[in-house]
Every structure is written in structure tokens, then in C-alpha cells.
Queue: 4 jobs
Job 1
Amino acid sequence: MDLREITREQKMLGGAIAMLLFIVSLFLKWQSVGPFSGSGTDIGSWPIAIVLALVAGGVLAADALGVDLPGRFRVTSLAAYLMSLLVFYVIVFIFAIDGLAYGIWLALIFAVVGLALALSLHRADTR
């Protein structure tokens, strides 16, 4: 399969799905030290991450499905910016906590995949 054959709408929906999977990964185990473990929701700022992911995925899905959004902004720019914040959010916690577990790695993968799709859309929009 040639990735250049993926349509704009498929990339947008892929980014939205990546954000939903990112939200799911917040509820998985991010840290495990001996008998103790913690999920992404044990971090005090997890509601901010959920809001960022919902807005980023929501604007991409809405635009892909043809929903008119209020305001004057470029959807792909907003989504790429918010997804870059999520990548930064996960990377900060990778360096901040010990005993990393599978949930944080999944969160990083989903955030990077969403960001890559949003950046490819942004590049196409700015040409």
C-alpha cells in the first residue's frame, strides 16, 4: 500500500482515531514499581491531556465529515499544534517517572501517529 494514496479525509479520521486511542491509553498502566503501579490518570494534569486530545481529534473528525466549525482557523494547524503538546506531555512524563509501563509507550505512539498525520495535512494545506 502506498501511503500517498490515503485521502485527506482518511488522514483526518486516522488522526481522530489516534486521539481516541491516546485517551484510552491514559487509563492503562503508565508506571510500575514493584507491587505498585499507576495509570496516566494518576497524574494530576490528565484532564488537560484529555481536553487537548478531544479538541484535536474532534476538529479533525468534524472537518473530515463536512461539519462547519465556528470561527476562522485552519483545522489542520490547530490539530497539529494540540497534538504536538500531547507528544511533549508524554515525553515529559517519560523522563519524570521511574518504572515505565506499556501505557505510556502506547500514549507516545498514538500521539506521534496523530501528529504525523496532522502535520502531513498541514503541509498539504499550506502549499
Job 2
Amino acid sequence: MSDSIVFYHGRDDVLHVIDPDSLPHFDKHPPLIDFVIAVINAGYKGVAVDEKKLANGRFILCLSVNHETPEGQIIQALAMAANAGKSLPSIQFALEQIEKIYAIHKDDDHA
């Protein structure tokens, strides 16, 4: 148990209580964050990252996904794959999959 607890009100409107010492610490961010940044830079709104500075000077990245959006579903699937030790596809492939899902939904709306 750490000396501090983080209370984080996520964009999913859930209050998360985090023991910072229970999280893995990285000097470099995990590859999933590169996917998240690419998705955000592509203009998709279903994924967000908030950075919180801890009392010890380190930072915690808080990832929020909207599971109702294609990007949220894909980022969640990528997170599960990464946590299971599986290799991740290219960022471009992930972005293309999001775009395809939106195109299918758009075509369904006009049918």
C-alpha cells in the first residue's frame, strides 16, 4: 500500500480510486498510448487521456474510452491484447479499422 491514493473522476463519469504503487511504472509510455494519441489526432472523440502528477513527481496516465464508439471498442481490444502479451497491429491498420466501422454505420444509416 502506498502513502497516497489517487481519486480520479474519469470521463466515463466514474470515480476511480487508484493506489499508484499498484500500477506498473514505465520510463517510456506503453505502446498502447501511441495508438491512443493517433486516434485522438485523427479527430475521434471516443478516447481520451488525462495526465495526473503524483506527489512523488511521477505521472499517471488515465485512459478513458467510450465503449459505444468504434475507437473505444478497438482501443479496449488493443489494451486487452497488450495485457495478454499479444503483439499489436500497426497504428495505421487500427485507424483503418475505425474508419471502416464508421463507414459501415454511415451506410446503415442511409439504407
Job 3
Amino acid sequence: MRESRNHWTKVMEIIAHLEPTEQIIEIALAAAEGMLSLCWRLGVSNDEAHRIYAWGEEWALRSASSGPRARLRGAYGAWHIFIGEIDRALAIYDEAVAMLDAESDGALHTLLASRRAYACLLAGKLRTALRLTREVIESMGEDKPRPGVGFGDWLFMMSFSGLVLTYLGRLAEAGRIIDRCLQLAIEFGELGSTNAIRGFGVTHAWFTGDGVTAMQHARLQVEFAERVASPAARAGAYDSLGIAHLLRGEWEDAVRCLEGSLGIVRETGTFLQAEALMLANMSDAYRGCGDLDRAIDVAREAVEVARSRRTRMHECRASLFLGRALVARAAGADLREAEAALSDAMAIVNKTEARAYEPYVRAELAALAAARGDDPLRRREIAHAAALFRDIGADSRAAEIANAHAAA
């Protein structure tokens, strides 16, 4: 990736002194777009990214077509995603779409829709994310990519639909999509797509409670990330590995991985869209280690970060784990705060339709009822959670909580 950065830097230096023909403008914008993409992959200063965008914008304004400028705006929006400015990214994408007309390149419409879909998922606009994803897939080809569509791009969008469906609670359907896309990515040697799909697979495995699959994916993610030496890829990979350890009850290993992932994010300033999720997962790892005070402090921070970055999906998990840690400590006003946190998590579920989270919230409400000595409520919430786990396709989770209900 650093070789690519050197390449595009050299291109920018050379064309700076050339006449702005349409061909030169096209090369200049390709350089600016490539550099902005590397900004979030490698982690660069905000000043440098803004400078690159401003340089590209000067060239875009010389073009007779609005398409190149819209494409550059799309790359700028993607960079804002990775520095954690979700609302700003969505606004930039809207501006880019407004630049297009009926004669604009269909591939550019598709590119912007795919990027907006990811931002919408982070913001908790799941139905919009699903609609945009389906529109992109329809334009790309539903069974296989249409001529001119990159196979890796098609695989990413197909598998991304599985991620959206995961949060919506359609785990069986999502699992089939993710598995099929992973098999195709491996078969055709699409390394970047394979890595991204494994990340989606870890998220899916968290909701189903499959620690074995999560660990398989995460270890291979780490191998890939270390090989390409991308801070964004390394941060995502070690977060995945931390989640896999959480699922297996390997708390200290989870802490080590998640602290490392968060350290990469904060040091390099990239992948910040996942900062709140990393903090939330870290909180649960501290809880598992028995460090409840630290777990609660980190969970509170996770909620604050998620709210400031407008990442509603991550706020849901942060509120869930805050409630869990507070119930575990159960000192002073902890149970009242836990009730508020779990109420916040349920409100997000209802607002965003992230049904995959609802049984988890119900399970923690059962623990809260137990801490308050309300056994009838505890039993009702456990039964409700078990039924919801079965509804979303998390049968192993349903069995776990049903067994807990039977033993109580």
C-alpha cells in the first residue's frame, strides 16, 4: 500500500505542470481518489487528507462533466466514515448524488449507493441500508456479476447484504449469503473480499454464539492484515480476534486483542467508525476478568463515543454491555443505571429494527430482575429471550438460556 502511495504521489507531482485536458483531469482525479482511499487504509493526518481532496477538487472543477467531481466527493465521504464522522459522510454522499443526472455513469450511481449503504448501517438506518444494497445488487447482477462489474465489488455487496440481514435478525438467511460469498471469494482468489467477508462472518458468529467459526475467521483476518500492513485492516482483525475470544470465555486474551485494536485506531486515526464497538467489547472482556469497575467505566465511554459518532448499532451493544456490567456489580445505584442502559438498548432496537439484539437485551433484563429478587419477571424475560433467539435463528443461544431457565 505504501508503494501505491508513492506511485500516486509521483503522478500528482508530474501532472501538476500539465495542461488540464480532459484526459489529464481524469488522471488527476484518479490520483486524488486513490490517495484518499489510502488515507483511511494507512491512517494519515486530517490535514493531509483535506489537502488531497482540495487538490482533486481544483482539477474536478475544470472538467466539463459533473461525474468526476461526484466520484471525488464519494471518496471524500468514505474517508469521513473511517475517521468516525458518519453524519458528515452521509451529507457528502447526498451532495455527490445530487451532482449526478440521467446521463451520469451507472457505475458511479452504484458506487455511491454502496457507500451510503454502509454509512446507513452504522447510523442504524437498517431499512435504508437494505434498500440501497438491494438496488446495488440488482444493478450489478443478482446471481452473478454483469459484464463490466468487478467480481470483488459484486462479492462485497452480496456479502454486505448478509451483514445487514444479520442485524435485522434474519440470521439463517444471512449465514447462507455470507458462506456462499466466502466460498466464491476463496475460489477466485479475491483476497481483499475474502478478508472483508470474514469480518462479516465474525459479526454473524457473535449473534449466533459460534466461537469456533469466529476464531477461524479472525485468525485468518489477522494473518491477512499483518501481511498487507494496513492499520485499518489490523484494527478490524484484532477486534474480530477479541470477539472470538469473548465467545470462548477467554477473557484475558480478549482484553489483549481489544486493547491492541483500540490502540491502533487511536494512534493512526483510522477505523474510528468502530471505536465505540471496540470499547463495548473491551468492557465485556473486563467484566469477564472480574474487573467490574473498569468494565463499567469503559462501557460508559463506549456509549458516549457511539453517541458522538452517531453509530447507533454500536451504541446498542455498548448500552447492552453497560447494563450487564452494572447488574454484575449491583452496588448503590447500579441497578437503576442498568435499567436505564437496557431501556436505551431496547429503544435502539425498536427504532432501528435491529432485532438480532432484542433477545440479548431481554436476557439482561432477566438478570436485572434476578438481582432485584423479582423471580416471576426473571422467568418471563428468560422465556421471552429464548423464544426470540429461536425466532432469529440463534438456536444455540436459545438452548443456553432455556437451560438456565430450567435450572433456576
Job 4
Amino acid sequence: MKLADWVVRAVILATFFALLFAPEKWGPRLGVVSLGIVGAWALLYPQGVLGWAKTAHPRIDVNVDDPSLWWIPRLIGGFFVAFALVIVLFSLAR
């Protein structure tokens, strides 16, 4: 799963630079793509999301391998994927 973690980081970094240097051209497209990829990553690998949260906030004392906590990142990931799909569907309907 380390490869998936690096792929997600690369997509986030590419989205950041797209928003920084060419926001009108690449910003919305890469924004929706990164939203979908991060959502799918949270659905498939909730331990990674909990690990990122634990790294960002050291006060959070969670065991990332505890399956009883995995529903939280999966719920957030599901919302991200659903929101990305809604954006794509509405943009195709225009």
C-alpha cells in the first residue's frame, strides 16, 4: 500500500501546482480527479487516512489497525467519491 500512498501524494501535488500555475485550465479538472482518487483511497485503505490524521495531530491516540475505526474514513471517502461523481455528471449534462 505504500505505492498507493505515493500515488495519492503525487496527485495532490500535481493538483496543487495546477491550481498555482494554471488555475483556469487545469484546476477544476485535477481538483475533481484528486477528490475522486482521495475518496477511493479512503474507501480502500482507511488505515492510511488514520495514519495521516495521527501524523498531523499527534494528540490523536488511535490504533490505525483497529477495524472498528475504519468506518469514519470510509464514510468520508464515500462522500468524496459521490461528490466527484455528481460534479462530473452535472458537467457532462451541460
